[in-house]
Write a structure and sequence with these properties.
GO terms for molecular function: peptidase activity. Pfam families: Rhomboid (PF01694), Rhomboid_N (PF12122). InterPro entries: GlpG_N_sf, Peptidase_S54_GlpG_N, Peptidase_S54_rhomboid_dom, Rhomboid-like_sf, Rhomboid_protease_GlpG. The protein is mainly alpha-helical. It folds into 2 domains: 84 residues, Alpha-Beta Plaits, CATH 3.30.70; 187 residues, Rhomboid-like (Rhomboid-like fold, Up-down Bundle). It contains 11 helices and 3 strands. A 3-stranded antiparallel β-sheet has the order 1-3-2, with helices on one face.
Length: 279
Amino acid sequence: MILHQFNSLRAAQAFSDYLTQLKISNRIEHDSFSYQLMLNDLAQQEKAQAELLLFLENPNQEKYFSASWSSGNTDTPRSELAYEKSHLVGNFIQHAGWLTHAVFGFCVLIYALSSLGLFQPMQSALAFFTHQPFDFTQSWRFITPAFLHFSALHIVFNLLWWWQLAGIVEKQQGKQRLLVIFLFTAIASNLAQYFLVSPYFGGLSGVVYGLVGYCWLFGKLNKSSTVNLPNAYFGFLLGWLVLGFIDVLPMNVANYAHLVGLLAGMLVAVIVTKLKITR
């Protein structure tokens, strides 16, 4: 079980070593945002919790760092060091599963073909419907605008956040959960942009904001979950959303797609929590 989430590896290691000195079995795990101190024996939870409260009150006491000297862990653990220094491509692959990478790769391919003049996004079968009634024999058009990007800044921003957040969801909760989030937020955000603005749009940002909303709220509703988004990141992306609405960003932004995607992702977080599908 997770005893506590630390932002600093140094602090997590110091407390971990102190618990080990007290014969409280534990380990450190990490995700992209924090270091989780995990207890190996639930019977030791009460004692560990009491020690944690003392540590948080005064984490700079000599006894915590002397525990690291005693155990020999005075620096970053070798496993963590290997993770940080491993090859960039290896980190990229290990962070996410095949679904995250497939969406990432398809977006890059479409953008590359568009940049070379070999593909016209708005005239393609991937664009949203341009008129009603919708032709439901081409229902993929409700989703596929998510793969279309129109500038380097556009695709880089979207894919970095997609890789980061989708990778966490896929690794921790599985491909099915990520697929549900992707489809639901893509359809919801694309429909909102169509009805409120125009049929000429594209980009993964509605889905990205769906993941932002999902990860942030899921973490709030399920405190021990490794699927979460720190408030600082959520605040930054919320600020970016606001800037889009007041039209000060250096590119055209599908504001309503962002907003509806965010709300759709939050709705998924509420539903899976209520249904206790919290893996």
